[in-house]
Amino acid sequence: MEDKKIFTDPDLTKRTVIGPNGEDITVDPIQDYFCDALPKKHEPKRAKIFESFFNWARAESIWVLGFGTGCGSIELYPLLTPRFDAYRFGVQMRPTPRQANLMIISGYLSVKTLKRAIRSYEQMQNPKFVMALGSCTINGGMYFDSYNTINRLDKYMPVDVYVAGCMPRPEAILAGFEALKKRIKAGKAEGANLYAENFETYKKNQKKIIRDWNMPDYNW
Amino acid sequence: MSIDWIKLLFTLLGLFIVLNYGLLQYGMIRRITARIGKRIGMPVYQPYIDLIKNYSMRSQITHGVMFYLGPVFRLAGGVGIFMFMPLIYGSYYWSNYSFSGDVILIMYFMFFGMLGMALGASEGGHPYSFIGISRGLSQFTTVEVPFTLAVIAVAVQHHSFSLTEIVAGQQGGIMHWNIMTNPFAGIAAMLAFLGMMMASPFNVVQAPQEIPIGPPTEYHGTYLGLLQTNRAILYVSESILMVNLFFGGATNWIELIVKSFLVFFWPVFVGLVFPRFRIDQSIPWFLKLPLILGIIGIFMV
Amino acid sequence: MEYLTLQNIGLVTGFLLILIGLYGALTQKNILRIIVAFTIFDAGLNLVIVALSYIKGRVAPIIDQTTGITNLSEKFVDPVPQALVLTSIVIGVGVTGVMLTFALRMFKTRQSLDINDFKETKW
Amino acid sequence: MVSPVHIVSIGLITAFLLGLGKKSQQSILVLVLLIATAAMTMISGSWLIGIMTGSVQPTDVFTAGFKPPFAINLRMTMDEAVLTTMVNLFGFLTVIYLFDVLKNAGKHLLSIIVVFLIGLNVIVMTRDLFNLFVFLEITSIATAGLMIMIQDSKSISAGFKFLIASSVISGILLIGIIFAYSYIGNLNIDFMSNLSLIKGGSVAVFLVLSAIILESKQFPANGWALDMYESAHPAIGSALSAVSAPAVLFVIYKLMPIVPESWHSLIGLFGLITFTFSNFLATRQGNIRRMLGYSSIAQGGLMLTVVSMSTFFGNSFWFIILGFLLTNFFAKAGLFWLNGMVNSDDQNKWGVLRKRPVLFFLFGAFVVAIAGLPPFPTFFAKWEMIMQLANGNGWGWIVLILLGSIFEISFLFKWFGRVFHAEEEKINDIRTPWFKQVPVLLFGAALLATSYYFVEYLNFDVLFVMLPLLIVTVFFAIDFLPAFVKNLLLIASLTIYGYLIYPEIDGNVMQLVFMGVFLVGGILTLIPGFTQKGTRAGFYPFAAMTIFGLIMLVNPADNLTFFMGWEQMALGSYILILRGKKAERPAQQYMLFSAGGAYLMLAAFGLLLHFAGDTFFGHLNGMLPGGGVVFVLFALAFMLKAAAIGLHIWLPGAYSEAEDDATPLVSGVLINSGVLGLFWIATAFGPQQLFGYDIYQIMGWVGAITAIGGNMLAIYEEDMKRLIAYSSVGAMGYIIFALSMNSKLGLLIALYYMVLHFIYKTMLFMSAAGVIYRTKTRNMYEMGGLIKSMPWSFIVVLIGIITLAGMPPLAGFAGKWMFYNAVVMKGWYLQGTMVFFSGIVAFLYLYKLIASVFLGQLKDNHRKLKEAPFVYLLPQFIFVIAIMVLSVFPQVLLEPLATIIPDRIPGEALHWDGKLAMTSFGYWNAFSVMSVVIVMFAVIFGWLVYHSRKAQKVKQFNIVFAAERPFRPETTHVSYNMFAGYKKALGWLMTPLATRFWTGVSDWSMAIADKMRSWYTGNGQTYAMHLLLYAFVLYLLISGGKIL
Predict the structure, then answer these.
(1) CATH classification of A59-209 is 3.40.50.12280, yes or no?
(2) What is the ipTM of this complex?
(3) Does C88 touch chain D (CB under 8 A)?
(4) pTM of the entire structure?
(5) Is residue B42 less than 8 Å (CB to CB) from chain A?
(6) Which residues of C touch D140 (CB under 8 A)?
(7) Domain count along chain B
């Protein structure tokens, strides 16, 4: 009888409120509060020269979403210190997913965090990139048989660069940035479009893990 | 009504110069900031790349009409200040559209962008936008008081609100600059300038660690590009305003750039040294020393 | 001794009565006593009226054998106040009567004749 | 012509006849009484008419065949005819009114009524002192008899107290009479003119006079009278107030010739003290009848003043006394009678009157008449009295009258407001049989007729006063029509009126501007009224009254017209405000402050008359030497209306609690009357000094503080309308500041800003009204995200706030730009900076207004809102167009406005070079600024729209929320206490000093009144003591401190 345990969120269930003139207004939060459009694929510019110019700019200006998961987030901060100074490579931290291009999944993802990570990822704008740190995002690492962590990140979102290690040192992450830049400049970093194209698959995978997905499929 | 096309061309050229200068200046400042933190820092041209990248974002979202208008207002405000600002003393073509109005027009045009931005960000509906805006507006009220006193002092001193006149009155060497002839007003304005630039210690408006980045939380892509463009233009324009008001204006571009860079370096310098004020600390701060200096400045005339 | 005329005695007595009456009216707590005080007050008033009109050596303005019918205006005291005093007495009686009526009714409502018990309307 | 003595004889015969009747024939007896009173009325009435038309000569009736002084004579002249008619008519109506009571009462009551009437008639007519005494006593006994008509312990004990008091009084009177007789040898008033010259004779005069004064219930020796008013049957109370008091006052009038000249003013002063203090004590009264009693006594005091100073008032005496007498007669009687119908002394139960619109209207008319507001006779009488007093330098007197009037207004309108708002469930049923209604209706009609004659007598301008009054009257008459018809009619009549009046004022730019503001404002603010359903009873007459009152201010022929317009506007707007659901207290505050302002103005008019003669204050043309006080009084009065800081506390409540669609009228339009006045005094008086201080300097500071204070207060408001209301305070501060700069530019700013403030504030209030109409709430934190459902309203608010903030390129900037120039020219840097600061502070609340209502998160219950109705939007967009035109071509307005400002005002004017505005300090070209901005804006917007053409539209919760989602709109929308940080930083500026001060004033005066009225202990003996003390003090004052 697992069904009974499913928690229904009172903020997301339909409800009736009384309008100013005494009329009944039915509010369906999912419908009314959230945009339920699905992601679209955004084609690159047809003119090759423009596209490569833009890709160069994207590669040289990587804005990282400050979202730390797992133990790897501690390895991110040294990037900004004089010793490693990721700014040199055009890498900057942004506090809001709307403005960020790169999401760094810095370690294992518990199911709960995965949900948030996906939301944040979806709120980033195309083109967007994902860098995954550590073994945990590749095969679960030491949490391979944990009941509440995922094993493979790229089942849930398209990953551009994996940086191996447990955890990778900042130098490795810097190398990861370089690799990502190459990928972007080569026009291969089309993760956002990949996600949009294979949205159903990704969503299915995500929902398999996240039982209480009670929001519209795509978080705008 | 005949339009002076050559003048328009010069104005646009000036705008282009100022935009580039602003972006480079920003890069430069970031670089200098990095060096103070013993880092190497980003390339000087990094702001260009950021700008291009933002304009090249493929997807965008919108929260409504006002969401669009916010950045438009903001940039129009910034460009407006530039448009009504005489750049080079004695040059007809580099005086932009300053014949439309005097320093008061410029002062009030600052609000134009602020209010528009505030409305646009509010349309986004993000609570942090509201909080950031309420802080920004609150702080702005007292920032402007010493600044206004200083402007009035200068205007009284030169018997004109016209920036051209004010610059003309300061010609003839460093001792004629208003910062020398009326140091109190000058210092009051420079202190107020800290607040206008929203640099630390007065950057609680955007407070990245606290309310992501305040008003523009929801802005991205082209919107953010507009805002960045505006920042480049606005900061330089405001620096030029300070140069015109207190540092003798400029008779050529080199002088203008050097002076405005030095003026702009003042809030950066302060910001690197001091930590951030809370909003209820920063608001009264401007009503203390800067206000007193401003009042002395006005009665010095 | 020249002040000790009948008129002055009347006047002084009258005013004394008036004062006594007023004093009584202002200090007595019993309504009936107040009414009595007012009758004293009235009596004093009337006495003053009569005394004021008294002229030494003259008689009351009533024609009888002793007065004859000639030169009456030199024999009589001023007749007008006499008439006034009659009216005044009548009115005094009337007022006293009304007051007594009120006293009766007041007693019926409260079973009390203390004037301090009738202060429900104030301020 | 029937001899007046037959009034008495008919009465006596009737009294005897009634004695003969049997209990079973009570109805017939009542009929007999009715006929008798009718006959008495007819006799005195025929004399009145005869004397008025001149067909009959005033006459003396000699009794007993002798001429006075040997016998009693009754005189019948105009005065007596008026009074006896009043008495008898009143008696007649009382009989009708008491029909049910009399039918069931004993026959003695009928006799008592007749005796009472006879007594009063003779008191009025007789010229014989002793006869007077006799009939005073008879009246007293009859009054005592009437007191026990209702036989509860209250009225019995009150009757007894009355008997005690009247015994004491009659004692004093009798001694006085007898002394007078012994000195002078007769009893006729006409033969006593040299009594006071005889040694000791003045004591006799004093005794007689003081007895009568005591009889006229002067403060503070009047406890017995108050108790009577409180406990007697309302019809009897009404008789005491409406006929007894005037009769006694008439006796004083008769006695005045024998009273030494030097006493007159002292008696007058005592009367005035009664007026002031009785009204003062009445403010603490909850019991209606006692309150009416206080009020009657106060009116009596005022009339005593007039009567005792009849020689001083000279030709105006009749005008003044009739004004007070008739108003008090009709209105007080009417109110007492209404009290009898409502049958409750509890103000809360008076709400029942609302079920009878006609009676309710009359109730209002009575209250307003007593309060001395136009167009009722008291208003004109008070005006004339003050003018005369001012002529004679009676400043202290004026202060007392005005103080008393303020107290009067305070309690009367508290009552009125309570009746207007008393809750339905507390309302019991009202019994209004025809015989109770008829007297009230008659007296109501008579009051209105009297008012008509007074207005007619004063010969007002036809087009500017009589026509408006006529229109207002018509709207009272057609109040039963549906709302939209009346709305249409009012708009039409305003339009036609504008058309009629245009040729009159064409060429006078100032009048055109203000008339435009008032007329156009009136018309446009009425348009939203089309959404109203039903009859909307009572709105349109008062809306018309307000608007036409404003119009009267624009082109007044003299000070009186101006003042009348002012009061009329105050009254009309008071009702409009009172109509709001929770407006009782705010409306009361509004009325009090309005009245305060009006009375300050009245005092100023008095002073002006003294200094400058009978000129209209706006036409003084320059310096008025030593007019500092006048100027300050005027300035205070107008600043009250314009809500300068400290005097502003009425404004937020009044504006926000008024009906939503009436708010633009009472705020945006009406507040300009204050500006009009200020502008007038600023141009007419020139710079003035008070105690060596430059008044303009002070006003400048007041304006600056007002600007900051108003705006600061607005920041923390959560109520949409209160926020806009406080913003009005700020704007008014700005205008006051600009005016007090006293330079050409300053005045230009004030005028320009007046027009602009009118436009944007009306617009904002209407827009707010539209939003409130849809959302049914005024709290901004309950709204949010309305831009999607109400885009047009949003645009209006946006334009409104940009204008308000003074941002280029819209019209508001013109004001700011001129302001800087003016400040720098004037040298008021500090004040100027304060005003500038207030301007930036305005951003805070403007942002709050637009953001928390239109932006942010849409609330659940507002999901299905529609745009505000078209009739709300139409006027708003007319205003928007006006703003747009002004923004591009400010010279359209600024150039004509500049012509209004007289040349003698110092300072530099604004120069125009084509589209370029110039001063010696700066320049500004609105057209080119606008062009630059539009081009720039369009380019950037085009660029952005092109770039973001594919942007995905998202919904309200699609925001980054730290990887979570918002829970509810209510918890996501930031609005409540939005500027908490600001409060923390600068909240100390908001210490509500003004509110505390006024609350303190009110609390203290209440406490003092409470303490003072405990003087009336309720003990008959104490009251008797009061009488003696009063006489003693009066004696001491008259004799100059010597006991003998």
Answers:
(1) yes
(2) 0.89
(3) yes
(4) 0.90
(5) yes
(6) 95
(7) 1
